[in-house]
Design a protein that fits this description.
The protein has 413 residues and is an alpha+beta fold. It contains 13 helices and 17 strands.
Length: 413
């Protein structure tokens, strides 16, 4: 068995568009190209989630030969290969597994000519369960267990009148489109039913059928519970779940992802338990998995095929009006690979236990800026590897050249 990994960050946009012929914006294509080798660090042929296999390959059209990070990868035991997908499919006519960042009609359509036939019914179901309004099924289950404290749980609205009523009568609200790119499709409503809110809501209702609403939380921590689900309709135990653990991340003021903290699961849980008891957080994980199996996994089993999915459930801790810390155990459900899971796997595989650091996505406006920054960081914070684990230093997880505008990097302090 051979596995080929793809980094297709346009996945969320493709889901919203729905067309198999979707073409992402040029800046998204550039981002995908620059970070195309990111899967090297979570791809595996050692049995991680997708089972043991003979070949591990990452698709990339970048002109980067195998001398890139060759010594670092050797010391870390990373032997995954990369190149254009044409090479992989030429050598592997059958018995291969395609593992994208996320599966959608556009991605599958692009692989048709290589014999990786798209499964339209599976893509339709992934789109259905990826909608933010579908994730309300988990939120409703969790609310029934009393895990939202005195905060209003998220809900959805089907009419502009109901949205106006929520905007004018309730506390500040974050409205969300059911499908959008990460950190996109958000409308922050703090001053009533303004014209921009009305226009946004009307357009979202017209294109996606509903609007999801939740209170604007006074956040102190964003984190996620990362796990994988394997479906086998022919097995006695047709649904199995593998926990990967926790990721602790940061976003900007608009909700766009910026970085993850690199730390052990126990250190992240210890940090979060300063605000909310650890057993409450762990109970939330348990209830999320129960709700996922009941509402997601069983729905996906209807396709009647073997499949594996990465899952990331975004959560947060915030303060209520009285200053009490409250757990929001289901902000969103990501039916795809996430930066949080990538950082979680990277830490557990390549970083010495107990060390702290950051996993960051950088973007530059001008060519050459990231290359200069890369050279500076290499000099000021050189990578140190002992016994196959990183103990300190900087490393870019993706190639940095003069024309590079985006980079994934880690720094261990």
């Amino acid at each position: 068995m051979a596995n080929i990994y793809f980094f297709n960050p346009e996945h969320d946009l493709a889901l919203a568009n729905e067309s198999p012929h979707y073409q992402p914006p040029k800046n998204v294509v550039k981002f995908a190209d620059d970070l195309s080798l990111l899967p090297l660090w979570f791809a595996s042929n050692d049995g991680l989630f997708y089972g043991r296999n003979d070949k591990c390959f990452v698709h990339s059209s970048l002109k980067v030969d195998e001398s890139w990070l060759s010594e670092e990868r050797r010391l870390l035991g990373n032997c995954c290969k990369w190149g254009d997908k044409k090479l992989f499919f030429a050598e592997n006519k059958e018995n291969f597994l395609v593992i994208p960042w996320g599966k959608d009609h556009a991605f599958c359509h692009g692989l048709e000519r290589f014999g990786a036939a798209p499964d339209a019914s599976e893509c339709d179901l992934i789109r259905e369960v990826s909608r933010r309004d579908f994730s309300l099924k988990i939120a409703q289950h969790i609310h029934s267990k009393g895990l939202y404290g005195n905060m209003t749980p998220p809900c959805s609205y089907l009419s502009l009148d109901d949205i106006e009523r929520r905007a004018t009568e309730a506390s500040p609200t974050l409205f969300k489109a059911p499908l959008s790119g990460s950190g996109r499709g958000l409308c922050w409503c703090r001053n009533g039913f303004e014209k921009r809110v009305e226009n946004w809501a009307a357009k979202t209702l017209q294109t996606q059928g509903c609007v999801v609403a939740e209170p604007i939380w006074d956040k102190v921590a964003d984190f996620a519970f990362e796990f994988g689900v394997s479906l086998n309709p022919e097995a006695t135990e047709c649904i199995t779940i593998q926990d990967f653990g926790l990721s602790l991340f940061e976003t900007d003021s608009a909700g766009v992802y910026r970085k993850n903290r690199l730390a052990s699961n126990s250190d992240i849980l210890s940090f979060l338990s300063k605000y909310v008891p650890a057993d409450e957080i762990q109970n939330a994980f348990h209830e999320v998995k129960k709700a996922f199996v009941a509402n997601y996994a069983k729905r996906l089993l209807s396709v009647r095929k073997r499949a594996q999915y990465f899952i990331g459930v975004d959560m947060l801790i915030g303060k209520d009006a009285n200053g009490k810390f409250i757990l929001n155990p289901c902000v969103e459900v990501n039916m795809r690979m996430t930066m949080g899971l990538a950082s979680r796997v990277f830490y557990d595989k390549y970083v010495e236990e107990g060390k702290l650091g950051e996993f960051t996505i950088d973007n530059a406006r001008e060519p050459g800026a990231l290359l200069a920054d890369d050279q500076r960081r290499r000099s000021e914070n050189p990578l140190i590897i002992k016994d196959g684990k990183i103990v300190s230093g900087y490393m870019s997880l993706t190639p940095v050249m003069h024309n590079t505008l985006s980079r994934a990097r880690i720094e261990i302090f």
